[in-house]
Design a protein that fits this description.
307 residues, mainly alpha, 14 helices
Length: 307
């Protein structure tokens, strides 16, 4: 991870490239690295298959793509502080500098939380964590409390609710006090702790799935904001390397996890998004925002529905 950060901060900056564009490139790489770190706790059982998967992934490395963004507001923006964990905060802060997103429109019902399938529950928990960030951005105390109740329900399904009780109490106190910045920080720490507890109870694959739900829900929201504010479409994902990195981590999950319906849907969604954003290298005209929205919404609708 340190080498990843060093490479992005030390590499020379292209003439005319905005500081924010450079940040987005860094953020995409950081998110890929953080997903890799988050998924790295189960190496002893999967070394042979991981090595084989690594070789197959190298054959489909992300092509080089242009990342120039011309909007004057972007060039004038300040670079947000970095985060060591994949988080909606970095993206949302960028959009706040470029316009005024209508955050309340992104708040959504979590759907059915009566679920026995634990891999799907882990993906749902990641999605619901993003909804918590949205509730914070909209400064809705009641919405935050509603999402926190959903988070506790999913944590119970995953068998980590008792271990997360103190963290959840802290989140509730901050919501009641409307301490929005402290809530953002605490939410980032929440997913880290959830993953840690899952790994301690030997549920590493479930810990690995959390960031996928969180990132896909974030990208879906990004697409809406980019369309509403008429921004460069690449701001939806930051950089295509994020998608390639997510695909790579999915392929390294255990075989039994890959057979789960929610994980099969996740793989199909990610590969569709990859193909959409890679199409430009073949000179194909694609409405990338619409295609990305449709692919992710189809995945999320299936995930959040009844089993």
């Amino acid at each position: 991870m340190l080498l990843l950060l060093k490479a992005h901060f030390i590499a020379p900056q292209a003439k005319g490239q905005s500081r924010l564009v450079r940040y987005l490139q860094w953020f995409a790489a950081l998110a890929v690295g953080a997903v890799a770190v988050a998924a790295g706790g189960q190496e002893s059982e999967e070394d042979a298959r991981r090595s084989s998967a690594d070789e197959s992934v190298r054959e489909t490395e992300a092509p080089a793509v242009a990342t120039a963004v011309s909007r004057d507001e972007i060039a004038a923006s300040e670079v947000p502080s970095p985060f060591a964990q994949p988080s909606p905060v970095a993206w949302f802060r960028v959009f706040e500098k470029l316009g005024s997103p209508r955050w309340r429109q992104f708040y959504s019902d979590s759907g059915s939380l009566t679920i026995s399938n634990r891999p799907r529950a882990a993906l749902k928990l990641g999605v619901t964590l993003t909804d918590a960030y949205v509730a914070v951005e909209s400064r809705g105390s009641q919405e935050v409390r509603n999402v926190l109740a959903d988070i506790r329900t999913l944590e119970k399904t995953l068998g980590i609710s008792e271990r997360m009780q103190q963290r959840n109490s802290r989140l509730g106190e901050l919501a009641d006090a409307e301490q929005w910045q402290a809530l953002r920080v605490e939410l980032e720490a929440t997913m880290t702790e959830q993953q840690s507890v899952l790994r301690e109870q030997r549920d590493g694959p479930l810990a690995d799935l959390l960031p996928f739900g969180l990132l896909l829900r974030t990208i879906a929201i990004n697409c809406e904001i980019v369309r509403d504010l008429e921004l460069e479409d690449r701001l939806c994902i930051g950089d295509i390397t994020l998608i390639y990195g997510m695909i790579r981590r999915v392929e390294l999950l255990p075989e039994e996890t890959l057979k789960e319906r929610g994980v099969r849907d996740l793989r199909r969604c990610l590969k569709g998004v990859r193909d959409c954003w890679a199409a430009e290298t073949a000179g194909v005209e694609v409405d990338r925002i619409t295609v990305t929205q449709n692919l992710i919404q189809e995945f999320l609708t299936s995930l959040m529905s009844n089993e």
